[in-house]
Amino acid sequence: MLDNRPTLPPEIARRRTFAIISHPDAGKTTLTEKFLLFGGAIQMAGQVRAKGEARRTRSDFMKMEQERGISVSASAMSFEFGKYRFNLVDTPGHSDFSEDTYRTLTAVDAAIMVIDGAKGVESQTRKLFEVCRLRDLPILTFCNKMDRESRDVFEIIDEIQENLAIDVAPASWPIGVGRDFVGAYDLLHDRLEIMDRADRNKVAESVKINGLDDPKLADHIPADLLAKFREEIEMARELLPSFDRQSFLEGHMTPIWFGSAINSFGVKELMDGMGEYGPEPQPQTAKERQLDASESKVAGFVFKVQANMDPKHRDRVAFVRLASGHFERGMKLLHVRSKKQMAVSNPVLFLAADRELAEEAWAGDIIGIPNHGQLRIGDALTEGEALHFTGIPSFAPELLQGVRAGDPMKAKHLEKALMQFAEEGAAKVFKPMIGSGFIVGVVGALQFEVLASRIEQEYSLPVRFEPSQFSSARWVQGSKVAVEKLVNVNKGHMATDSDGDTVFLTRLQWDIDRVQRDHPDVKLTATKEMMV
Asked: Going residue by residue through the chain (532 aa), what tens digit of pLDDT does each one get?
């Protein structure tokens, strides 16, 4: 966050583009709902498990997500909040979809980490947090479910500091926990926030207080809780650092808010914090140079492709993060990979599952571009400059299975379906050099179920996955001669991926060691940068 950066045009400076990350069940979808509620984007927050069509959560639109109550695909939502424009990218919390989440984190400027007050820092949170650290993303923390029996506040903060090696500065402090939870004290603005348990969609009442000795506190808080709260605050002020925006923007410190998303409590303060302290659209890195958000020419990159958002039309929407400029509908942009001009005539903005045409968008915004497969993850769109954005990862799958169509006559349809999912980034698809059929690779087992259910729904094609003799895959790098030599000796292990790149399928670590021994001039890699 260098001070010598040019100042951003006001329209760009008011943008806040962020993701919400958490372990499954920490309450991320509920928090997303409440963000939309306070942003005026939806009138009634739907509960994930509530009954009836009317209360389906608005941000989960794939059929399987609605049935299971988990968010599988990251969706993007834009809404106004006060003077800010929030672009919220929802990430799948389920560990089996980590790759989608990692890619989403390349498109945002900050992250909100949701922690369950009873469980603290869980494994999945740790993994996602590491990706944020790699990118030095500023992180705001929300400790959820304070209205249930939760752990000691100091314990939770210690755990975050130890596990995640980051300073934690309390932005609010809870008063009481579980059944006795009455609200929180806003340390950044000296305000008392009282929770209303009766109406879950009502915004909490806020009482302006002059410091902690104000007699008004006693009107709102039972005496025993007040004494304990004053004692805790004194300890907190001695033991914990106070909030420092610079340190937060550099990724060394996280402010923490306490609340209960389901009771709409603490959510607004968290949103105010994101607006007030969160980063404005940051520079993006391309192979050629760094791109500043204030540049006048439009440039952006695709970080996600979602197929069949509208099953009737077989369309795909490429999610594009605008890195610079002011985009207007109908603009012609250069698709860098194919070197072709593309007229973007029907870009969409998302308000959960509803879309509306985007007449314009600015750096920091996320727009959807419907297309028939021209756009892939990692693609750059610019006003003419050949840029290649870096840092969008593709990981080697950890689970491989063969796949067959229930009806052998439909093998062609299956190939089309698989290629579509490969481009969407939902799975890796390998075509072995010997034999027919395909091998599908994923990061987590639940993805096989999702794929089978989607192929059946979207292509009316029952398929079955069967065990494969291979356990992992590595991309092959090296000179043409060296790669051909490797291929000729190991035909049974070789395949190509959906981009046509050569892949070595392995059964055991021994296979990899053997190749490295016998073919020292070939490199096997477990990640491939999605650059085009």
From this structure: 445 566 788 888 899 999 888 777 767 778 887 887 777 654 433 333 333 333 344 444 445 444 444 333 446 788 888 899 888 887 765 555 556 777 888 889 999 988 888 787 776 677 777 777 777 889 999 988 887 777 788 888 888 888 778 889 989 888 877 777 777 888 888 777 776 655 555 555 666 666 666 777 777 777 778 778 888 888 888 888 888 999 999 888 999 998 888 887 888 889 999 999 999 888 888 888 888 888 889 898 988 887 655 555 556 788 889 988 898 888 898 898 888 888 888 887 765 445 566 788 888 888 888 887 788 888 888 888 888 888 776 667 778 888 888 787 888 888 888 888 887 777 889 998 887 788 998 877 777 888 888 888 888 888 888 888 888 888 888 888 988 888 888 888 899 888 888 899 888 888 888 888 888 888 888 777 654 3
Task: Please list, in sequence order, all residues whose beta carbon lies within 8 angstroms of the beta carbon of residue 26, skipping any fewer than 6 positions away.
Answer: 93, 114, 115, 116, 119, 122, 125, 144, 145
Q: What is the crossing angle of helices 223-239 and 153-164, to 10°?
A: 30
pTM of this prediction?
Answer: 0.73
Rounded to the nearest 5 percent, the helix, strand and coil shares of the chain are: 30, 30, 40
Q: Checking DSSP bridges between strand 15-22 and strand 110-116, what pairing results, if any?
A: parallel
To the nearest 10°, the Cα dihedral for 9, 14, 19, 25? 180
* CA dist 90 → 80, 87, 227, 240 (Å): 16, 10, 39, 30
Look-up of token digits 């290629």: 419
Distance, CA of 424 to CA of 530 (rounded, Å): 12
**C-beta separation of 524 from 476 below 8 A:** yes
How far is the CA of 179 from the CAs of 19, 145, 147, 182, 205, in angstroms? 30, 11, 6, 8, 18
Side chain identity at residue 432, one-letter code = P
Structure tokens, 280:
């404005």
Pairing state between β 428-432 and 438-442: antiparallel
Closest by CA position to 78, among listed 320, 409, 393, 340? 320
- Where would I find the H helices in 354-445? 411-424
State how far the Cα of 103 lies from the Cα of 391, in Å rounded to an integer: 9
Residues 414/429, Cβ–Cβ less than 8 Å: no
| Contact predicate 252/166, CB 8 Å | yes
Q: For residue 91, what is the DSSP state? A: -
Q: How many CA atoms lie within 13 A of 206 on its CB side?
A: 13
Residues 6+ apart with CB under 8 A from 377: 103, 302, 303, 304, 305, 392, 394, 423, 425, 530
**Count of other CB atoms within 10 angstroms of residue 529:** 15
